[in-house]
Amino acid sequence: MIRLRSTFLGFALLLALAVSASADEGMWLYTAPPRAQIKAKYGFDLTDAWLDNLMKSSVRFISGGSGSFVSGDGLVITNFHIGRGDLLKMSNAEHNYVRDGFYAKTPAEEMKCLDLELNVLQSIEDVTARVNAAVPADATGTDAALARRKIFADIEKESLDQTGLRSDVVTLYQGGVYHLYRYKRYTDIRIVFAPEEQAADFGGDPDNFEFPRFDLDICIFRVYENGQPVHPAHFLKWSATGAQDGELTFVSGHPGTTRRLLTIPEIEYMRDSQLPYYLQVIKRREVLYSVWSGRADENARRADSDLLNVQNNRKRSDGQLAALQDPVFFGAKVAAEQAFKQQLAATPNGKDALAAFDRIVAAQKIITGLEPRFRLLEDGAGFNSASFSLARRLLRAGAERPKPNGERLPEFSDAKRESFEQLLFSNAPIYSDFEILKLADSLGYLVEQFGADDPLVQSVLAGKSPRDRAAELINTTQVRDLAFRKKLYEGGADAVAAAHDPMIELARVIDPESRALRKTVEAQQEIIQEAHAVIEKARFALEGTNNYPDATFTLRLAYGPVKSYEENGQTIPALTTFAGLFARDDAHHNREPFGLPARWLAKKSAVDLTTPLNFVNTADIIGGNSGSPVVNEAGEFVGIIFDGNIQSLSGDYGYSDVQTRSVSVHSAGILEALRKIYDAPALAAELFNGHR
Amino acid sequence: MIRLRSTFLGFALLLALAVSASADEGMWLYTAPPRAQIKAKYGFDLTDAWLDNLMKSSVRFISGGSGSFVSGDGLVITNFHIGRGDLLKMSNAEHNYVRDGFYAKTPAEEMKCLDLELNVLQSIEDVTARVNAAVPADATGTDAALARRKIFADIEKESLDQTGLRSDVVTLYQGGVYHLYRYKRYTDIRIVFAPEEQAADFGGDPDNFEFPRFDLDICIFRVYENGQPVHPAHFLKWSATGAQDGELTFVSGHPGTTRRLLTIPEIEYMRDSQLPYYLQVIKRREVLYSVWSGRADENARRADSDLLNVQNNRKRSDGQLAALQDPVFFGAKVAAEQAFKQQLAATPNGKDALAAFDRIVAAQKIITGLEPRFRLLEDGAGFNSASFSLARRLLRAGAERPKPNGERLPEFSDAKRESFEQLLFSNAPIYSDFEILKLADSLGYLVEQFGADDPLVQSVLAGKSPRDRAAELINTTQVRDLAFRKKLYEGGADAVAAAHDPMIELARVIDPESRALRKTVEAQQEIIQEAHAVIEKARFALEGTNNYPDATFTLRLAYGPVKSYEENGQTIPALTTFAGLFARDDAHHNREPFGLPARWLAKKSAVDLTTPLNFVNTADIIGGNSGSPVVNEAGEFVGIIFDGNIQSLSGDYGYSDVQTRSVSVHSAGILEALRKIYDAPALAAELFNGHR
């Protein structure tokens, strides 16, 4: 599965840069779609009406994925692996909706999610001139950053006040362009249908990022407002025949992060520092969660989401690191940068851009030096637990809220307030045994990394072992009590201090150093960002503007045909069928993670086994695109993205359409499963007809 | 399970020091058994005849475990987890003896192991004076080490020539004492019985190092010579009633390594460097092997031993690190050393010992500085594959064999020649796909650790990615061909060079730096060793000689009663039963790793469910004791060690009998299983009667 959840890699710079596109490459802005390329290569015209309908049918899951409206009565479809966190939050020891799936036969049975937020993009406005005007020309890194943060907050608040829409200023082309994205927010989201995990994630971690593939990775919600289903003006018409081999398709979704135009020192940093560090942490966690899950079924249920998350990130990061450790792949990046620098050297104004490269080297070096402590403190790797996250949010809210909007840490700005509170006041279950396990292990990691004699470590442990200290903190903190959180959030810094909550006091102990690290790191990131802006302007001057920016978890359009590919001398067909699913299940003796649910085995004879189940196309996607609708030239829903193949894992750093493929569930396969396996004719009919 | 297999931690100093014993503490030398303590506490006399019979019935598995003769017709019993490597080597895609178990109903069906070596201790001789005489008093670290290595080799060769027995000089009390251990070697070992892994390792990794426990962790071999079963003069009489709650018991086995008298800087090094590093490497491997195993059943079979090994080591090392990260446990070690140093300061000759502490600090610092490269090169963490190990053995054999015996690296000495060749010429299967997986991952680790621009890394990769280079090396080397290895080993350095084998040439590329690192590290270890000798002599002077040395994978005697313990306010009874086993299986819905084999479920009604299955006693054991016989005062076999509880994991650094327990299979439970579940009355009768 492809998933953008963790902000762990957020510390790596989220750069938004322009690239030159070739083949079916590109995650294109809706304001600058690749009309010419598509017309030239496929003879198809992207019309404004076609684009507008697709844009307003596309949905962003703020938890880290994509989706789309597929009925006039408010149905939204996304992946099971995007909805599974919500299913889990509604599960308990009696009801396990992840394992068993869920189907609301009547509207009354539709279950309201605890803290899910959906966004639907309504408009895009260019605010570049206003942002640039607010930043003094002679401002240095930190001052420029503060000025920019302030104008972002002002623009966002003004827009929110005027329109009532969630308003985010997005940095594109590394500060070449600033756009204001306005979203309609939905927070009453109810679950309508999910298959069993064994059907949605058939093949589990072994088949993750592999193809051929056989997953019914879907989850269907209905969006409500004022207690009633919404009737969106735009939704996608369902194609019962679905994606055809060879036909041109489009993907509309929210790719999270790409790093295609990093400079070599930054890529080296990813290869030599960030990815190895990150993999070390998540492999440690993977072992921790796996072992604990093995002790009891209930443990497995409680650790389930965290475990899947680390497995998914581990497989993706392993693939990324392998790409960067390949001298051929990496050598091509080096050669491209060298050629570009030679061009710059031969250009009258190239000197500025070359100097900008040097500034990146210097800033990167400072960041790298601070990281060992930054990662454990500000990034939280030393305090892995929901309780600590809540405690720090409460502590910082008390300190940040009284400040002027533009001077707060960005996550406390007025424009992000509703989303922040949605998270802070979530009633999703937090299990103290699992919390102790995670916190104890990460405190142990803190001791390893800083050393047992480090004064901060000694303050954190307070004379106890990591295990005993974690148990004490988790067992005595009140932050898992919603009423307590509300009281402290409303009471502000004084109430927070008066509570003497041990976990909040722990967050207070590390806060001075943690904030100081963040401040320095962000200042250096600003320097890097501005250096990139200089470099990219020089690149525009040399290479023109036929480009798309790096991904920013904002809506993009990708395209490409449904297409087979060659691997180890064999042709991998573009589509798989239900017959292939049952065959693979047989080959693994119906054993986990390959075992099909009993319902599937019982209904096998009812199914048309030639029905397509999954397929691949060449569209350029990345984590965050999970759940993106795939549409045909008629704009109809023909499938839903849920993964990329193993060759796609280099996609953070580059694109090729030779073997790289996106993997989708087929729209005909979805109808077949709903009708023949899940006895859900009403839901199938609503999808087929576009209304109830 | 407790297992001493990996030499990975071998780099951590294997110190043999004296300690003051309390409670039922101690892994005692057969030359200095704790007669007085046992007499005083339990009123029992250890007689020479009793000790001689137990010593000569005890068996060492050179692959890393213990066992004992239990019939006059050559039966040896050990743990399943000690025999499983041999079972695996005899398995293939058709026969899976690890999964399905094995039983030879007739002598003709007994299967010969591929490369198993057993040792039975025959005599112990004190050679301290001769060793000390051969080392000039003014020799410095390296010179002293060379002189010692030479006299070791001389003594061992002389003894081998005279007696035909395997002869090992063992360093005890950190050079206070040197003993010559003479063993009868057996190499024709045939497998008679093993249960299914699901019965032997019921509960798998989740229940590993836990109690209550329900494992039939046994494996029975028969020892042959000249094509006939041996008739050992000494073997243990089987007790059909087995261990009784509260009775005094003894454990005779081969504990591998303890570190109870390390100085604080050395323990800090374990806590801050060695254990975190080691855990990082094995958690990385655990994830690698688990994921690959999940893709196909055959993968799982091929990776099985390696995966179990890293899981076992991970759980043990996690427990050790947790003990060292506990300020109470660690603080007690610090306080003890400080008190000792104060005593030294008040002693006329204490100055020398205090200076020795400083020498340890200095030497440890040098070792710590060299380790990042030592671990990957000489310790092999950058080249994890059987093929590389074979290639390096061939390369070094060519260089070392022509040298005088005493100047060779120790593993090439004449005395170790037979064991070395047994390993080098093993015909155990090596799977190229699994080899590529392991080598690719460890080459990637090498790139991470040294950096992609490191000249040695570039030589190793030869312009390819870790994955491609690993595939090339594994697919083109001939070292997995036994005839090729024989030819090169006999042909010596010239033949090795002429072969131009790519893996051997890779080993040659890293050999200069790898050998240089080893030389420096070993010289510092010598300095540390000699400093410890000074310190321990001073300790003797202050504290007397009522001590046992740290473990050295040589035969030791431990003792203590069968005894319950308290945990989280509950009493954990000392014995478990077959009834408890079936109950735990039910609680986990007969699902792996808790699923009992079908045979067990079918035979349940035939079994006396009150029969004891596992039990605990307070005997002081450590990894390497796996398979050790537990005997009663009559010297009868009442059980077999296979694990310690989770509280025992601090045992590397200290002992307490409050909660620390050793876990055994009960002798009555073994008979019950053989008779009622495995339809093996002949084997049960041979154990019961002591002969066929």
Describe this structure in words.
Two copies of one chain form a homodimer. With 692 residues, the first copy, chain A, is of the alpha+beta class. Chain A has a domain of 302 residues: Thrombin, subunit H, CATH 2.40.10.120. Helix content of chain A is 48%, strand content 16%. Chain A has 23 helices and 23 strands. In chain A, strands 3, 4, 5, 6, 7, 8, 9, 10, 11, 12 and 13 form an eleven-stranded antiparallel β-sheet that branches. Chain A has an eight-stranded antiparallel β-sheet with strand order 2-16-14-21-22-23-20-19. Chain A has a two-stranded antiparallel sheet with strand order 1-15. The longest helix of chain A has 42 residues. Chain A is globular, with a radius of gyration of 25 Å. The two termini of chain A are 31 Å apart. The relative contact order of chain A is 0.19. Chains A and B meet through helix 8, helix 9, helix 10, helix 11 and helix 15 of A and helix 8, helix 9, helix 10, helix 11 and helix 15 of B.
Q: How big is the Rg of chain A?
A: 25 Å
Q: Which architecture of the domain at 24-117 and 187-253 and 549-689 in chain A does the CATH hierarchy give at level 2?
A: Beta Barrel
| Uncertain segments of chain A | 3-21
What is the helix tally of chain A? 23
List keywords for this structure.
homodimer; Thrombin, subunit H; 23 strands; eight-stranded antiparallel beta sheet; 692 residues; disordered N terminus; alpha+beta; eleven-stranded antiparallel beta sheet
